[in-house]
């Protein structure tokens, strides 16, 4: 479980997220939704330590993370897997070496052990015989799956996804959503997903937090969202007729 309490972050004295508190549950897909500029990515960066909060606390299973220094955070970083919006694969490394990268950073595995683990993770995301390919030789969906394989290679307790379906066609997005849900349940990770994809919300949203203008406006489940009376959230959900029909079908 991850708990955040009264998180505030400003840039040049301008608040980007203000006084946000939430709990993200183990074995669940916890979605943070909102339009571009709502503060989703900044919140995630604060949670994993890529940005420092101005005030508030982040706790991983009751262990305060935000109060620690850079060196003290290393044990936490070994437990965190993250998939960035563009995948963030290393262009100069082949698939196998990309997946092995966190193992080299955070474990004492031998080269043979790292290769075996990389193969296990690639198989788990349904990629076989791609070890020696480079990112430039992969499709967008394959890149995302390699990024997921890399994120799970150290067997993390906590998984973070920043817009995992960005740039993907609808069918591939469904594949990625299903894969994230399966891995979350199988590994019993605490999974946090930033998205503005309403299909993802309605398919895999165990818990949903809605941000608008840097503040938390609503939280609930994908079932609760159908009957919400929160006007800000309804405006976000029903931004298009397609989204309206999707919610009504649920």
What do these coordinates show?
The protein has 250 residues and is α/β, with parallel strands linked by helices. It is built from nine helices and ten strands. The protein has helices at residues 40-48, 74-77, 95-106, 111-124, 140-152, 170-187, 198-204, 231-237, 241-249; strands spanning 2-11, 14-24, 29-33, 55-60, 63-64, 80-83, 158-162, 190-195, 207-212, 215-220. The protein has a six-stranded mixed beta sheet with strand order 6-7-8-3-9-10, sandwiched between helices. It is globular and about 55 Å long. The mean pLDDT is 89.
Radius of gyration: 18 Å
Q: N-to-C terminal Cα separation, in Å?
A: 28 Å
Lateral strand order in the biggest sheet: 6-7-8-3-9-10
Instruction: Indicate the structural class.
Output: alpha/beta
Broad shape: globular
The level of helicity is 25-40%
Percentage of residues in DSSP E strands:
15-25%
Number of helices: 9
Uncertain regions spanning at least 5 consecutive residues: none
Mean pLDDT, as a whole number?
89
Number of strands: 10
Topology as a string of helices (H) and strands (E):
EEEHEEHEHHHEHEHEEHH
Q: How would a textbook summarize the main sheet?
A: 6 strands, mixed
């Amino acid at each position: 479980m991850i708990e955040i309490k009264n998180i505030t972050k400003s840039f040049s004295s301008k608040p980007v997220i203000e006084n946000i508190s939430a709990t993200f549950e183990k074995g669940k897909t916890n979605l943070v939704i909102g339009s571009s500029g709502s503060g989703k990515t900044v919140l995630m960066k604060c949670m994993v330590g890529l940005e420092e909060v101005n005030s508030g606390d982040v706790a991983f299973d009751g262990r305060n993370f935000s109060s620690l220094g850079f060196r003290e955070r290393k044990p936490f970083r070994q437990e965190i897997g993250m998939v960035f919006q563009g995948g963030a694969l290393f262009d100069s490394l082949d698939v196998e070496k990309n997946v092995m990268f966190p193992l080299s950073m955070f474990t004492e595995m031998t080269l043979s052990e790292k290769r075996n683990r990389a193969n296990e993770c690639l198989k788990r995301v349904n990629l076989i015989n791609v070890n020696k390919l480079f990112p430039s030789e992969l499709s967008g969906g394959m890149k995302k799956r390699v990024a997921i394989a890399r994120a799970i290679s150290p067997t993390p307790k906590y998984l973070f996804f920043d817009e995992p379906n960005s740039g993907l066609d609808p069918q591939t997005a469904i594949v990625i959503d299903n894969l994230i849900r399966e891995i979350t349940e199988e590994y019993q990770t605490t999974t946090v997903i930033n998205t503005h994809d309403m299909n993802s919300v309605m398919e895999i949203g165990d818990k949903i937090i809605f941000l608008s203008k840097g503040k938390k406006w609503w939280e609930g489940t994908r079932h609760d969202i159908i009957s919400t009376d929160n006007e800000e959230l309804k405006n976000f959900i029903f931004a298009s007729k397609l989204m309206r029909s999707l919610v009504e079908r649920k």
